Amino acid sequence: MAEIYFDNAATTKVDENAAKCALEVMCQSYGNPSSAHHKGLEAEHILKKARTSVMSALGYSSRDGALIFTSCGTESNNTSIFGVYEALGKRKSSIVISDSEHPSVEKCASELEKKGVKVHRIPTDGGTLDLEFAEKVIDGTTMLISCMTVNNETGAIYDIKSLCDIRKRKAPEAILHTDAVQGFLKLPYALSALGADLISVSGHKIHAPKGIGALFIRKGIRLPCRQFGGGQEGSMRSGTENLAGIAAFAHCCDEFTKNKNEYLSYIRAINSEARKQISEKCPFVLFNSGESFAPHILSISIPGVRSEIMLRFLSDKGISVSAGSACSSKNADNRVLSAFGLDNKRADSTIRISFSKYNTADETRLLAEAIYEGNSSLIHTV
Ligand code: PLP
After folding, report:
1. pLDDT tens for residues 327-358?
2. 106 CA distance to ligand 1 centroid (A)?
3. Atom of ligand 1 nearest to the CA of 77
4. Which of 80, 179, 210, 314 is least surrounded, with the fewest CB atoms within 10 Å of its CB?
């Protein structure tokens, strides 16, 4: 059976050269970057070089701020939100997020709500941030504005730059964080152009292994230490670094920086081909993602067919897609799709197709044929 993987927003296949970098670090350059001997210095050099690579893929250099390596995007988001709360929570009383954040932001915000923090959620109907709402709720009480760069379920790109402008005028002391886990290396401009203070990214969405993420912290911002110990990562996150993961992550960043235009046009072309194949073969399909959304995510609804049923049908044919987001698929949470404007029926029949450099046009044809077949043979239950 063919193996067709269209769930790249959940995680990606590790790039073989990135895996080789990891193997080399594990088996050759295995020193501890904190050790003073030559193996330690060799490891420290790899760590330093990797930091520069990730910073540079974000559009920054060490003059602009610091980059700490974390275990994943979730950790980077938690560190940002609870860090800002700890730093500013005594003087400021509210935070602003969007109404369609990933659970690793939404659930942190709910925790702060329990502690008495006022949480404003900016509507994102149709994939557009309601900036008038943002203008109304961002004020002198705001300690944090946290909004994702690209939505993981629909691919909608949020206008972080305008949020930064509002922050500058109305809440200059507030910190602006963006969860760029889905936006990193998927947009034609560097994320530095957005003007955020804190940026979360994750390795496994860009062909690095799981277990490695990073957080960019703009110069002048100090977040409290979240993990005490040996003082690694600028004393913010102690613990011996995951150097193998870090080296692989840096490799993926360097590859992207070298081939950005080619890479993005390829993903965009695969997305367009999938749209074409699906609209030709499956005229009953409703497209949720707009053509100007992030190139790697295509959300569609198949009226009448529950997403888990279509997902299982496609999976039996060797095709992997996801129902909504991978994180929420286990508990049937329509929060994000409903914020996007889909009613429950349509949200329940939505699947997310997400692309990577490894997908081919032929795979999109097979996907469209399988969706057609599934729609004809499955019992319509929604
Ligand atoms: N933020 C977004 C937008 C995501 O899509 C994800 C994962 O799907 C995360 C955060 C969490 O990242 P990680 O899996 O690295 O913890």
Report:
1. 444 555 799 999 999 999 999 999 999 999 99
2. 12
3. 10
4. 210
